[in-house]
Amino acid sequence: MIDFKRGLLAALFATGLLAAFAAHAQEATIRKNLGERIPQLGKIDEISKTPMPGLFEVRVGTDILYTDAEGSFLIQGSLIDTKQRRNLTEERTEKLLAVDFDSLPIKDAFTIVRGNGKRKLAVFEDPNCGYCKRFERDLQKVDNVTVYMFLYPILSPDSHDKSRNVWCAKDKGKAWQDMMVRDANVPAGSCDAAAVARNLEFGKKHKITGTPTLIFADGSRVPGAIGAPQVEKMLAEAK
User: Fold this and answer.
1) Domains of the chain from N-terminus onward
2) What is the arithmetic mean of pLDDT over 150-179?
């Protein structure tokens, strides 16, 4: 009996090694063929099997593509699980784009607190963003929240100047609300505004390409302006 168990364990171990070797060889084949055939694809960060037989996920940064076992075909689009009615590509992308809230460089943001401020929300915004202004006006309806505002000047040549003026204001929160909600000019300011540059670096690293971009306490991320009801819903889900 002992010999039988040892033999079985040895067989299982060998099978596992063979499977791992085969998977490694298959990944190497895909990397080699795609790298040679589509060099502009760039560095492939990860290759993994999908639930669909014969289809492999190719991850380049946070971009998701699909290929066959030989890297002969490349597919760009969404993989849908029709039985469960799930967009697997969307779910995977959301996980890749999620940002650990505790990793946010809070020192480079200013806060706007409403009510008891217990709920948390981080927002990246450009002072010249029309959608941001609409979002800010709607956000006035959301209570009991602390908003960490990251100035993110990416849209216009003077976006950085306006961001600096807000950052250098004595009351940053009021200056921001004056500009975005009340369409008031913020006086020119002069101070160390290196935080704004660091925000741009952070955004580049995490592929924040548009404003507003919202990050909730659970790491979920929303690109674009959403209404107060949806903000409330996501704040509740992020607890």
Assistant:
1) 2-97 (3.10.450.70), 101-237 (3.40.30.10)
2) 96
Instruction: Tell me: pLDDT of 197 over 50.
Output: yes
Question: For all residues of the chain together, what is the average pLDDT?
Answer: 90
| Contacts of 233 by beta carbon, 8 Å cutoff, 6+ apart | none
Q: Is the pLDDT of residue 18 over 50?
A: yes
What's the distance, CA 232 to chain centroid? 20
The 3-class secondary structure across the chain, one letter per residue, is CHHHHHHHHHHHHHHHHHHHHHHHHHHHHHHHHHHHHCHHHCCCCEEEECCCCCCEEEEECCEEEEECCCCCCEECCCCEECCCCEEHHHHHHHHHHCCCHHHCCHHHCEEEEECCCCEEEEEEECCCCHHHHHHHHHHCCCCCEEEEEEECCCCCCCHHHHHHHHHCCCCHHHHHHHHHCCCCCCCCCCCCCHHHHHHHHHHHHCCCCCCCEEEECCCCEEECCCCHHHHHHHHHHCC
24 burial via Cβ count (<10 Å: 0-12, 13-18, 19+): exposed
Say if residue 80's pLDDT is above 50: yes
The pLDDT, as a whole number, for residue 21 is 60
pLDDT of residue 75: 95
